[in-house]
C-alpha cells in the first residue's frame, strides 16, 4: 500500500478505560433484555386480540392454542422482568462501588499529603526550638542581673569605714545630758515667800 | 422573509424552480424552512425524499415540485447541514446537531451522569429520559449528535460489539 508519505494522525488519548467498557457491556445487555420484554409484551397483546377474534368466531381449538401460547409468553415475560431487575441491581451496585472507591482514593491521597507535611515538622525540631528559646530567655535574665549588680559591688572595707564614722558621731551625742526622768522641781526663793508664786523656772534639758 | 410560509405554499410560482439565481436561492431557503417545519412538527428524524411528498405536493393548486427541483432542494439542505445522508435515507436536523448535543449534555449534567457511561440506546429510549425532548430519537441520529459532543471533548463514544456507548466528561 505504498503510503510512505502518509502522515498518521496521532490517536487521540482515550478517556475510556476497561471498567467503562465492562459497565457499557452490562448496560447493553440490559437494553437487550428491555427490547426482548417489549417484544414479548407486543406479542402478548397481539395474541390477546387474536384470542378475542377466535372467541367471536367460535373457534374454540384455535382459541385454546392461542391461550396456551399466551400463558407461555407471559411466563417468559415474568422471568425476563426478574432478569432485568437483577441487571439493574448489579449496575447500581457497581456504580455504588465506584463511588466508594473514589472516596477511598481521595482519603488515601489526603493521608499521604498529611504524612508528608508531618515529616517536615518533627517533635524533635519543636523541642529543640523550645530549648533554644528557653536558653535565650535565661541568658537575657542573666544579663539583666549583671547590669543590676554593677553599682553595689564596692569593697567591704569602705563600708566598714563608713560604719566607724557613723559610730563616732553617735558617741559625741552621748555626752549630752540625758532626758530627765522626773517632773521638774519648782524652785521656791525664801525672801519672796509672800510673793505670788512665780511659775517655777522649768529647766528642760 | 417576514411573510409567513403559508402564503407561499398557496402561490403557484413557488412550486416552479425559478431561473433567476438570486430568486432561486431565496426559493430554496424558503422550501428548506417548509421541510424543516414539517419535520419538526411531526418529529421526523429519519426520512426519504418521498416522506415529504405531502408538503411538496399541493393537489388543490395542482402543483408539485419537479424531480429536478426536489433534487436541488435536498442538495441545498445537505450543503446547509440541515440534512445528513445515510445510505438511502436522510437524517433531518430541524434542530442543529449541536443544539441537540447541548440538550443531552445538560440532561447528563443535571442527572449527575458526568463521568459515567451510558449506552446510546439507553439515552434515547431508556427510563431516565422519557420526559426529555430527545426521547425517541433514533440511535443513528443520536450518534451524529454525539459526534459533535465528542468534538468538543464533552463526551467520548465507543463501540462494544454492535452497540455504542458514550461516556460524558
From TrEMBL, chain A:
Keywords: Coiled coil, Endosome, Membrane, Protein transport, Transport
Gene Ontology CC terms, in alphabetical order: ESCRT III complex; multivesicular body
Cellular compartment(s): Endosome membrane
Main location: membrane
Region annotated Disordered, chain positions: 179-205
Listed name of the protein: Charged multivesicular body protein 6
Biological processes, Gene Ontology terms: late endosome to vacuole transport via multivesicular body sorting pathway; protein transport; vesicle budding from membrane
Superkingdom to which the source organism belongs: Eukaryota
Family note: Belongs to the SNF7 family.
Coiled coil: 23-57
TrEMBL record, chain B:
Gene3D superfamilies tied to this protein: Winged helix' DNA-binding domain. Chain C. Domain 1 (1.10.10.570), Winged helix-like DNA-binding domain superfamily/Winged helix DNA-binding domain (1.10.10.10)
GO terms for biological process, alphabetical: protein transport to vacuole involved in ubiquitin-dependent protein catabolic process via the multivesicular body sorting pathway
GO cellular component entries: ESCRT II complex
Keyword Transport: yes
Keywords, sorted A to Z: Protein transport, Transport
GO MF annotation list: protein homodimerization activity; structural molecule activity
Family: Belongs to the VPS25 family.
Protein name: Vacuolar protein-sorting-associated protein 25
Organism: Stentor coeruleus
